[in-house]
């Protein structure tokens, strides 16, 4: 309970009902809830104006219930989708803080007089998922059956991926390869797990054993502006899978289109995908509940389990984890759940991406490992 309640947000009942903001809005909805663009609360800042995709202006709220640790009178938040333009705005002094900084620009920001790059580990795990629910994949040349229902195929995909190569060449060493679906900072027994070894020959043998010795094609969905180097990672994965005979038809899209597709209310519209997840509660039950728990065709349960992995044993463990109060017993149950889902290759964990924020001289702020930027932790000299 105490892990999860930090993610419960309270809204004024009268205000919510008066503004028709009661209905839940999903990620695929195109019409925003009134609460998305209108202020409702008692925080340290209040909304002055909002121009979608252009600029949002805030000013200090003197009626805030807590003691202010920041020294700001106001904040202007400017979305800049282009990495190059965002970095240039920092280097020129136009902006005081920008994020994210592309990993290839970290040195440039540090070498520039008056700016620095803040880097550190992020809690977000980047992973690959596969449709294990449908009897036939939506996007594949395999007809009448689903290759991903065979654990040997899922394992072959895993062992075809050179995670150290991705870390070195694409992430510029600003990532930490992961063996499970949660950051090692958030689970005491993380060190007990190891990734499956990178072994293209073993991967080919597994495909042949499963009846796909000549390979097959599969569509892959990927965002191109959501995670650090997301499209480049997907391109690398596609290239690695090609070496074992799998042809990947990559569909990389801006995050709005990507999430509208893969979370489509008509059914999770994907066969193979890249996703990232930070547990809002910093706890493993959040991972199990959202990403690994069984879901039905309507999406009930495992809301972000896009591939539809399902294990009655893992679900039973998740139920026990939810109510177990002894920390040691609870961690043992969590480790058992991760062991079972790893053996099933429920997902293919890739890495925890690194954080890289750019900050102007004279600005002090807190860099949270969950990549949340809070104005109330900022002071400017």
Overall description:
The chain is α+β, with helices and mostly antiparallel strands and 381 residues long. The protein folds into two domains: 17-79, no CATH class; 122-352, Dipeptide-binding Protein, Domain 3 (Dipeptide-binding Protein, domain 3), CATH 3.10.105. The chain has helices at residues 13-18, 34-37, 83-91, 106-111, 151-159, 163-170, 200-209, 230-242, 255-262, 284-292, 312-323, 327-343, and strands at residues 45-51, 55-60, 74-77, 97-98, 115-130, 175-177, 216-223, 246-253, 272-277, 348-360, 363-364, 379-380. Strand 1 (45-51) and strand 2 form a beta hairpin. The radius of gyration is 22 Å and the shape is globular.
Please name the defining characteristics of this protein.
alpha+beta; 5-stranded antiparallel β-sheet; 20% strand; 2 domains; Dipeptide-binding Protein, domain 3; 3-stranded antiparallel β-sheet; single chain
Report, as a whole number of angstroms, the end-to-end distance.
40 Å
What gyration radius follows from the Cα positions, in whole Å? 22 Å
Let me know the largest β-sheet.
Answer: 5 strands, antiparallel
The CATH homologous superfamily of the largest domain is named: Dipeptide-binding Protein, Domain 3
Number of helices: 12
CATH architecture classification name of the largest domain: Roll
In one word, what is the shape?
Answer: globular
Concise synopsis of the structure shown:
With 381 residues, this protein is α+β, with helices and mostly antiparallel strands.
């Amino acid at each position: 309970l105490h892990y999860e309640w930090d993610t419960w947000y309270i809204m004024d009942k009268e205000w919510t009902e008066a503004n028709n903001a009661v209905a839940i809005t999903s990620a695929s909805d195109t019409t925003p809830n009134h609460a998305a663009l209108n202020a409702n609360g008692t925080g340290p800042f209040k909304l002055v104006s909002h121009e979608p995709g252009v600029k949002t202006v805030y000013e200090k709220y003197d009626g805030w219930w807590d003691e202010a640790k920041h020294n700001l009178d106001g904040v202007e938040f400017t979305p800049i989708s282009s990495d190059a333009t965002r970095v240039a705005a920092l280097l020129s002094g136009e902006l005081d803080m920008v994020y994210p900084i592309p990993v290839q620009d970290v040195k440039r920001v540090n070498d520039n007089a008056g700016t620095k790059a803040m880097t550190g580990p992020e809690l977000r795990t980047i992973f690959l998922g596969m449709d294990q629910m449908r009897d036939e994949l939506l996007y594949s040349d395999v007809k009448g059956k689903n290759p991903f229902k065979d654990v040997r195929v899922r394992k072959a995909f895993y062992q075809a991926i050179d995670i150290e190569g991705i870390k070195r060449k694409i992430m510029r060493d600003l990532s930490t390869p992961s063996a499970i679906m949660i950051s090692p900072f958030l689970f005491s027994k993380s060190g007990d797990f190891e990734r499956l070894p990178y072994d293209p020959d073993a991967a080919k043998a597994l495909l042949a054993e499963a009846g796909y010795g000549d390979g097959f094609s599969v569509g892959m969905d990927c965002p191109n502006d959501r995670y650090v180097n997301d499209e480049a990672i997907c391109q690398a994965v596609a290239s690695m899978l090609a070496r074992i005979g799998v042809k990947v038809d990559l569909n990389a899209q801006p995050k709005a289109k990507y999430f509208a597709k893969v979370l489509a209310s008509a059914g999770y519209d994907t066969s193979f995908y890249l996703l990232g997840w930070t547990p809002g509660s910093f706890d493993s039950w959040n991972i199990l509940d959202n990403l690994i728990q069984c879901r039905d065709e309507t999406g009930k349960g495992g809301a972000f389990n896009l591939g539809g992995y399902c294990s009655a044993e893992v679900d039973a463990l998740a139920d026990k984890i939810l109510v177990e109060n002894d920390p040691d017993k609870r961690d043992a149950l969590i480790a058992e759940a991760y062991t079972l889902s790893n053996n099933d290759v429920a997902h293919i964990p890739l890495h925890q991406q690194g954080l890289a924020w750019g900050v102007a001289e004279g600005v002090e702020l807190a860099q949270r490992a969950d990549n949340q930027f809070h104005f109330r932790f900022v002071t400017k000299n």
